[in-house]
Structures are given as structure tokens and as C-alpha cells.
Amino acid sequence: MNTHETRPILVGVDGSPSAGRALAWAVADAERRGRRLHILHALEIPPYDLPLLGAPGVADSLREGAMRVLADAERAARAQAPDVEVTAKLVEAHAVHALCDRSAGVLETVVGHRGRGGFAEMLLGSVGLGVAEGSESPVVVVRGGEGRSSGRSGDGEVAVGLALDGDDAALEFAFAEAAARGASVRTVHAALGPRLAVDAMRQNADEERLLWALLEAHAPLRKRFPDVPVTESVVWDDPVTAMVDASRTADLVVVGRRHRPGPVWRALGSVGHGTVRHAACPVAVVPATA
Fold first, then answer.
1. Domains of the chain: which residue ranges?
2. How many distinct helices (H) and strands (E) make up the chain?
3. How is domain 153-287 classified at the CATH fold level?
4. What family does this chain come from, according to its entry (predicted)?
């Protein structure tokens, strides 16, 4: 049996409303794809030299609260999809490390856009951004409206940013997700620079050339997924704006990620970082295969 076809979906929860939406999305995707679901709650116990934490029973109380969060998530998952096999685990570690350490053995990791950290988390870099930067498997950061982010099946659209750099990981993820949910794929290639009337003839020629390149890029996947409708679009704007605009009508936006050492914004890449920050729907960040 192909182990790739049996890998579970991993979802991180922390009891926040954002994590609840991520859980609902992950359960729906596990049901669509026929996968197991593994729920993870990471508890980071602060150092004991901080005030109050040295008092007897404080750590045990934190663990009890964490177990309640995990139990509530497990019950919600089973209620939403009784046929999905669900497991759950509490890990004493930072959430980013706990999820990234387990990312190699899963189909995808699902996280909420905002956790318990609130405004401070947004300033310092959210768990979602940290996992999207460091995961070895695709990461879905669930954000946007309740109906869209729930991940229900139906006629919809998966928009994927295509850089035409020869790496098909993001494109393959988009086709597989669209096939599972009965949706179409829209490939988006952003051509930098404004569209000027004086250059209309040249830009029309460039657009035609780029559209042919997009067709060639996803030709093998059209053969693998013949029932998935595909449209191609060349957008004369920067990639972040193009993907954020696409997110307003899409059920899921997919972007690639190449490894870049350095801080999160650089490692994730400006396109991935900007899309995760500003998209109106869930965003899948897919690491490159090379």
C-alpha cells in the first residue's frame, strides 16, 4: 500500500474560535479524502521561576485545562463526521515546534489564523505563519468567513498561484483538493507591472504566450484529473494582490513555498506571507519538492 495515500490530516487546536474553524475544515477534508484525522493540542508550560507558577498544582491545572480543550475538539470532530477515524494527543511543547515535528508524516497540517495570542500573536508572528514556514508538508491556514472556511463540498473554485518555475507541488495539491470537493481549478500567474495602454499590443502578445505556458504547465495534471475543470488567468499585478483578489471568490487559495533561511517573512516568502495575512479564504502553503 502506498503510504502517501494513507497519511492522516493533522490539525492544531487551542480552544479558540479560530481553531474551531480550522478543526471543522480539517474534519470536512478528512471526510472528503477518506483520511484519518489527528488532533493535536500543544501546551507550553511557562518557566517555574515566574510568579505564581511555583505554587503547588499550577502545572497540573494547566494540563487539566488542556485535556478539556482536546476532549472538546475530539467530540466536535466525531459529531461532525462520525465515519472519520479520529485520534487526539496533548503535547507539552511550543505549538509551532509540535506541529512541524509531526508534519513529515501527514498529508497536510491545518491551523487557524488567530489563536489565543490575540494582538501580541499578530505582532510577533502567529502559529499559523510559523507552521507554514517550517512544515515539511502542505499547511492550510484557515481564515475567512464561516461558510467558506468550513470546507464543504460543492461547486467551488481552488485558485493556485503558478510561478512557471517548473515545480508542480502546489499545482498538484490544488488539483487533488479540487477533485475531492468537486470544484474547479483556476491557475493564476501574476505578471509584474501595470498594464499600460501604450504597450497594449506587446502585453497582449505576452499574455497569449503566458496562457500557453500555463496550459503546458498543468497538462499532465489535466490527464490525471480529467473531471476537474480548469481556467487560466494572467493578472497584470504583483503576486500578493493577485492571490488576495482571487481569494475573494475562491474556496481555497494555494501558493508554493521555497526554502529561504532567515526570519519567517523571508523563509515563507513575500507572496506566501502576504497571502496568508490578507486572504479572504483559507490558504494552503505547499513546500516545493526541490
1. 3-148, 153-287
2. 11, 10
3. Rossmann fold (3.40.50)
4. Belongs to the universal stress protein A family.
**Cell 483556476 maps to which residue?**
186
Query: How far apart are alpha carbons 126 and 273 in whole angstroms?
Result: 11
The third-level CATH classification (topology) of the domain covering 3-148 is: Rossmann fold (3.40.50)
Q: How far apart are CA 55 and CA 67, in angstroms?
A: 20
Domains 3-148 and 153-287 share a fold: yes
Whole-number Å distance between alpha carbons of 174 and 163: 14
Q: What is the pTM of this model?
A: 0.85
For residues 248 and 50, give the distance between their C-alpha atoms in angstroms, rounded to a whole number.
45
Task: State the Cα–Cα distance between residues 121 and 22, nearest whole angstrom.
Answer: 17
Cα–Cα distance between 129 and 112 in angstroms, integer?
Answer: 10
List pLDDT tens digits, range 237-288: 889 999 999 999 999 999 998 765 444 444 567 888 899 989 999 999 999 8
- 17-33 helix and 58-80 helix, angle to the nearest 10 degrees: 40
pLDDT tens digits, one per residue of 37-77? 999 999 887 655 555 555 557 778 888 989 999 999 999 99
Question: Between β-strands 157-161 and 86-91, what pairing exists: parallel, antiparallel or unpaired?
Answer: unpaired
Burial class, 69, CB count within 10 angstroms (exposed 0-12 / middle 13-18 / buried 19+): buried
Which SS3 state, helix, strand or coil, does residue 81 take?
coil
